[in-house]
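Hey all, quick one. A colleague (J.T.) asked me to put the thiamine diphosphate job into the tracker so the inputs and the C-alpha cells live in one place instead of scattered across chat threads. No bug as far as I know, just bookkeeping. Sequence used:
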Amino acid sequence: MPFTNERRTPEQLAEIATEIRRDIIRSLVEAKSGHSGGPLGSADIFAVLYMGGVMNHDPAHPHMPGRDRFILSAGHMCPVLYATLANAGFFPKSELLTLRKFGSRLQGHPGRDMMLPGIESSTGSLGQGLSIAVGMALSDKLLDHNGARVYSLTGDGELEEGSIWEAVMAAAHYKLDNFCMIVDNNDCQIDGRVTDVMNIYPLKEKFESFNFHVIMVDGHNHGALLAAFDEFKTVTGKPTCIIAKTYMGHGVSFMEDRYEWHGKPPSPEQAEEALKELAE
Amino acid sequence: MAYEQYGAKATRFGFGEGLVELGEHDERIVVLGGDITGSVMTNLFKDRFPDRFFSMGIAEQNATTVAAGLALSGKIPFFASYGAFCALRNADQLRISVCYNEANVKIGGGHSGISVGPDGATHQVLEDMAFLRALPHMTLVVPCDYLEAKKATIAIGRMEGPAYIRFGREPVPSFTREDTPFRLGKAETFREGNDVAIIATGCMVWESLVAAEELAKEGIQARVVNVHTIKPIDTEAIAAAARECGAIVTAEEHQIMGGMGSAVAQVVVKNTPVPMEFVGVTDTFGGSGNPNELMKAFGLTSNDIYNSVKKVLARRAGEWNQVQAMTEVGFEGQHPAGYPKPGTVFPIEELIENDRKAAENAVA
Ligand SMILES: Cc1ncc(C[n+]2csc(CCOP(=O)(O)OP(=O)(O)O)c2C)c(N)n1
C-alpha cells in the first residue's frame, strides 16, 4: 500500500524515509550502475515533501491542474525520486527494479519522453532544472494565478554551475514566493569535497544577498524539515532557499559522508549489508 | 584480415595517457578538471603534474573560457568532461572565446555516443560533431581505438589552434598498431576494395571491417576508410572512394544529421555524386540500456552496415523494387523499433530477463 500524503509525525516520516532508502538500495543493486550517495542522503527531505503533507499532489491524477510541482535539478539523484514516487503511489513499486534498464520508464536520468507519472521534466545536465522550476513558478504565480508552488532540489556541487545563479537572480527579481529551492548540502561531489573541488561557501550569505529567504536546516531531522517547509509557505515577496545539511549515503554506515559513493551502486553483498542496517 | 583485434580498451585511456606524454615534453600543457577527472582520465595528468592541473568545479562554460584565457597567455590548456557538457553546454564559449579568438584550446569530449549506456539520453551526446564541425578554425578528431586515441591526443597537443577529441567510455576492440599511419586531416584506407566504400569514424571503423569481411564472403570487396579527422576532412580520399567504388556507406555513432556522413556527402555531391547510405542515429534521443543492446537497437552494428551496403548496391544497380522491400530508416524522430515506445507500461519480468540475457551475452 502506498503512503498517503498528510501531516505526519517525525517518527512516521522517519519510517517512510527508511523504506525509501531500502528501495534505493534494491533498485540500484538490480541496476548495477547509478548513484547511491546523494539519493540516500536526501531520502528524509523527499519523505517530508511528498508524504508529509507539504506538497499538493495527487498520484491518481499526476497532471492535475494547479498541482504543486517538483523538479529534480540534480537529475543523477533520481533513484530517490523514483523510490519516493513509487511509495507515494505514482506507479507500482515493482517497477523500481527496472531502473536504468533497456526500455524502462526509470531512465538513468529522468526522461520526460518515457512519461513516468510524477516526472515533470527531463533533467541530468546540472544547473538546468532550477531554471525550469523558476519558469514554472513564474507561470503559476504571474500568469495562471493558481496558488501552486514549485519545489526544486539541487546538489551543492551543482551550485558551481553559473546558470544556477542566473535562475536564482530571476526568481528573486520576480519575487517568486511560490518558489522553494532545496540545496542538498552534503559537501560531496565526484572528485572530492565541495570545498576542495570548487569552494561555494559562504552559502547562506550568498543566497541572502540575492534576496532569498534562507532557512538552514538539519536535512535528517524530519520535524525541522516540516517546520522549514511551513516557514516557506508564510514568506511573501521573496523566494526561499532551504539549505539542508545532509550526509552523503546517510543510513548506510559504510557509505556515510564518503564522496566515493557519489556515483556507484552497492554490490550484492554490500546491498545485503545495507538492507540489514536499514531494517533496524 | 589485415587488421586484427588484439584486445579491447576504452579510447578514454588513450586520451589520459596521451596527455601525460604531452605533459612530459611540454611545460605549457595544462589541464582543467570539470569534476569528473577520474572517468575522463585527466587524473593521470593531475597525479603526475599537480601544479599544472586546475579543478574548475562543475562549470563547463567557465572552464572553457578560462581555458581560452590560459591559451591567450601562451599555455596549451586541455579541458575534458562528458562530451554532452563540453561540446554543447559551452557552445557559445567555444564559438566566440575559443574559435573566434583562434585560441589554442583543446577539448576532450568523453563518454560520447550512445554506448555510454545506462546513464540515458541526457548523457549520450549524439549531436556534438554537427556543431563542432560547423565552427571555423576547429579541428575535430574521432579516434577508432585506444592507440589511435593516444596518437590523436598527442597530435592535437602539438598543433596550433582549437581542437576537439571525441572518445568513449566503454572498451572497444583494439586493432591499430604503433606503425599504423596517423596524420591529422588524412583519412586512412584500412581495407582495399573497389565494389563499395564504407567510410567510418570512431568505434564504427571496427564494425565496418567486420561488415567488409562478411561482404567479402559474397564476393563484394568493400573499401574501408577510417576518417578520424572530421574537420578538416580529407576531400581527396573521399572523392577517390566515390570515383573508384561508385557507392558509399558512412557509419558513425552520432546523429546522421550533420555528422561525419553529412560531411562526406558534401564532398561527394560536389565531386562525383554516387548513391550513399548513412548508418547512424536517425533523429532520435537515446535511452538507458546496456551499451551492446543499445548499439543494436539504434542500428549501429556491423550488421546494419552490411545491410546498408546491400541497399546502396541495389540502388546503384537500379533495383528499386528490392530497395523498397528493405525497411526505410526514416526521419521520424522516434525510438527505433527495438526500443519500447515511450509511455508504455512494461512487463517488468520481461525487462529484467532481457537484461540478464544481455549481460550474459556481454560476458560471452
Ligand atoms: C552540466 C553537467 N556537468 C557535469 C555533469 C556530471 N555530473 C553528474 S553528478 C556530478 C556531481 C554533482 O555533485 P553534487 O551536486 O554535489 O551532487 P552529489 O554528489 O551530492 O550527488 C557531476 C559533475 C552533469 N551531469 N551535468
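Adding what we noticed when we looked at it: Chain A has one domain: 10-279. The pocket of thiamine diphosphate is lined by residues A 37-38, 74, 76-77, 124-127, 155-158, 184, 186, 188-190, 248, 262; B 35-36, 58, 60, 82, 85, 89 (CB under 6 Å).
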